[in-house]
Amino acid sequence: xxxxxxxxxxxxxxxxxxxxxxxxxxxxxGAPATTPQPQTDAWWMTRHKQKLLQLRQGKTDLxxxxxxxxxxxxxxxxxxxxxxxxxxxxxxxGFNSDRTEHVLWRLAHGExxxxxxxxxxxxxxxxxxxxxxxxxxxxxxxxxxxxxVLRARLPNTKILLLALFPRGASPQDSLRRHHxxxxxxxxxxxxxxxxxxxDLGERFxxxxxRLRQHLMPDQVHPSEAGYRTWAxxxxxxxxxxxxxxxxxxxxxxxx
Length: 255
Fold this sequence. Notes:
Number of helices: 9
Number of strands: 5
Strand order of the largest sheet: 2-1-3-4-5
Largest sheet: 5 strands, parallel
Structural class: alpha/beta
């Protein structure tokens, strides 16, 4: 049995713990990474409206959500996209310069209304740290907020949560270190069933952790070979999450 003094100490500790949790909740709710807002450039809203129209034109089975790295499937990675995803009812919701708060705004303004994709592939967060002095905990909180929205709004959809790709030439790069810490948080957000975490980072670096220049020439965005590395790396898990035994992938060489 606890003494009165021990009981008071326990209640005090519990009170402090609950207060800290409450303060953390208030802080996260007002944090930039978790507060939905749009980009202000005209092209961004135009693209958002175009994507809403595209989503209404047919059944969406596979949804890519992200920033310019994901948007790049429409140009640099287009031939790889056509080979792997064009026949899968895939829609690309990658927006140049997007941060977590921009994705949250898009999801709240129609981009997942009235659809039921079988799989969402999410890659977001690299721009958070370049836009402001944000901690890995804050970035991962923004990504977690997106995952929470997807789970609530698309309860029957699987989520493939991708680790942030390596950034910078070497493991000592400050953004690379930030990504590594964010990825450690993201791993804990997955349950291995409805939310699956996948880290493809090792495919983009050599055995000393140096970025493979031919896969990411600007140390951020994949080349066409980089998009092929991405597609090939996640294809087995995409097949599993889509529930197919063989992918509708055209393995003939591109002309």
